[in-house]
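Observation: inputs received (chain + adenosine-5'-diphosphate).
Thought: call the complex predictor directly.
Action: predict_structure
Action Input:
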Amino acid sequence: MKKGITMKILFCSSEVVPFAKTGGLADVSGALPIALEKQGIEVNICMPKYGSIKEQDYHIKKLDDKVSYCKIGKKINVYFIANDNYFNRAGLYGDKIGDYVDNLDRFLFYSKETLNLLKKINFKPDVIHCNDWQSSLIPIYLKTSYHKDKFYSKIKTLLTVHNLAYQGLFGKDQYPKLGLDWSLFNIDGLEFYDKINILKGGIVFSDLINTVSEAYAKEIQTKEFGCGLEGILLKRKKSLSGIINGLDYELWDPATDNLVFKKYSPKKLEDKNINKLRLQGECGLPQNKNALLLGFVGRLAEQKGIDIISNNLDKMFQSNIQLVILGTGDQKYHEILDNLAKKYPDKFALSLKFDNTIAHKIYAGSDVFLMPSRYEPCGLGQMISFKYATVPLAFKTGGLADTIVDLEKNKTKGNGFLFDKYEAKAFMGKFNKAVSLHKDKNTWQKILKRIVKLDFSWQESAKKYKELYKKCLLSG
Ligand code: ADP
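Observation:
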């Protein structure tokens, strides 16, 4: 790219804070474009217009029947692809019963309309930055049907994989609706055990691929973490890298956070205690400042390690601890946790919902944040915890391994508890260490003072994305 010419990016994501969120992808999609704009890049965003997005809340205007838009950051246009039939529903991807059965139609519509939008608004990006399977059809179409059109032929693509476990798998009977040649339905294309795999297609057709931590980029090339895609990822090894996510400190900073009980800055960490006592009170737990308060906020999915917590809870409650869990997800975990909450009403508070306000209160009020994920592409909970002077206890994997330094292994730089074998003994070992260290008030305060200084802002990661876009432009 010539000097003095502004780089143009279209950022495609199925969820973007503040408009719609089910997890970390939304946090990234809300913050990274703004950080990119600060790097001098011209960015626009395109996402589906879900029923929960209300025009009046964000000054959303209509472009035409299929597209509306609003502005964030300085000059970022957020384009919403509308189709009431597809997107005007309670959930983003599914409901209690499971994934919506027409998810392929929904994100096929979104992908094609996103590409059509570019011509409509005459915005020719240098790179389309796609995220996860929901926007993975875009690189596929760009390299196939849209490639013949001069407007699109030079546009490059980057695909960021936020979680390899969600691949967009569909029966091959649906293949004709994609309008793609059957020759692409093979082991080097979209076929995966006789099904359509949209993420795999994205991995094959994107110019470059990245994931959200360096460790996860390596892990997914192995059978253990590759979710069946390790072969294709190994093939594209040279085009695959990892960039750790940042955290949006405009949203996550206890000194300015309107959602916590009492704001606190690194200079007045003692005010964190007020948040702890209020959280205990609000959750119906005894207000006890000496009890170690463990917090968990996250999707209740196998990935997040709910079972290692629930299986060991009887033992954990023999120590002077309390637990607050906020989450929603698999019915199985709702039931397991519900039963445990009934068994330990004075020790365990459970909230089975998605609630951003409660989440902020838990990050602020807890002493230790539990994140025993079996795998974790990046993870935001541990970074949020650092800022809120809450010590993370996590499994050594992916982004958790890249951001947490174990306190037992490194006394001067340690910032959390990391168990490195996924088994009860290792987990309980770190849990017991947390309980005993918490009793040593001086040491605990020193740790808190150290972790609040850690900086995981988007700036550095945005610079790395800029370099990756440049690399995209030089590819193929
Ligand atoms: P993932 O993207 O795998 O769900 P991350 O750790 O990357 O996990 O991001 C999860 C984000 O979603 C965090 O901002 C977390 O606070 C938020 N979150 C998850 N579950 C809930 C919930 N039940 N209520 C409120 N916020 C939640």
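Thought: report the result.
Final Answer: The two ends are 15 Å apart (CA to CA). The pocket of adenosine-5'-diphosphate is lined by residues 23-25, 27, 163, 297-299, 326-328, 354-356, 359, 378-381 (CB under 6 Å).
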